[in-house]
Amino acid sequence: AAIALIALAGFPQVQRSSFEPGSSLTTEAVVENWEGGTPAPAIGQIAPNFRLRDPNDRIYELKDFTGNIVLLNFWATWCAPCRLEMPLLEQHSHEFADENLVILAINLQESVAEVQEFVDEMGLSFPILLDEDGSVSEQYRIIGYPSTFIIDSTGRIRTIHIGIITESQLHEYLGQVGISI
Predict the structure, then answer these.
(1) Pairing relation of β-strands 59-61 and 147-151?
(2) Considering only CA atoms, which of 64, 80, 54, 49 is closest in space to residue 145?
(3) Distant-in-sequence, close-in-space partners of 44: CB < 8 Å, separation ≥ 6
(4) How many percent of the chain have pLDDT more than 70?
(5) DSSP state, 16?
(6) pLDDT average, residue stretch 18-23
(7) Could you report the per-residue pLDDT of 105-137, keeping only the tens digit for each?
(8) 106, 139 contact by CB (below 8 A)
(9) Which of 95, 120, 122, 144 is 20 to 30 A from 79 via CA?
């Protein structure tokens, strides 16, 4: 599948001939939809709202977190890089809670039992949401796991990162949305 990158007005243009997993699209629009031609959510756009439940049937809507910095992390239990970055997300969910950082981890189409076992094993305390039919992953045009979106306090996408995220990358992204590192 071809990958197209489009620079948004007002953001510095970065020349990139191809996308490398683990790199960021901080100053670019994200990948176009590979099938239907509908553009994927892009840097600078309002993040698409969704409504998902957690393993305990609590309902979460993205719009309820307006005013906070939201880190959306798309993941799966079978994804080794996802497993590696979860402790970093857990650490940051506590470390920056006073700075209005909310971490929402969206699991792709796995059973409640599989997800809960993973959550218990990893000792995760931030909200883990179930994308049971894959519609939110499709809405965000997820092409690889893990994928991370940083959404600013106004609800706009500021960073899209495909692949495992390092601590230094995460600090850079959080600093760009006003979180003191």
Answers:
(1) unpaired
(2) 80
(3) 8, 10, 11, 29, 156, 157, 158
(4) 79
(5) -
(6) 43
(7) 999 999 999 999 999 999 999 999 999 999 999
(8) no
(9) 95
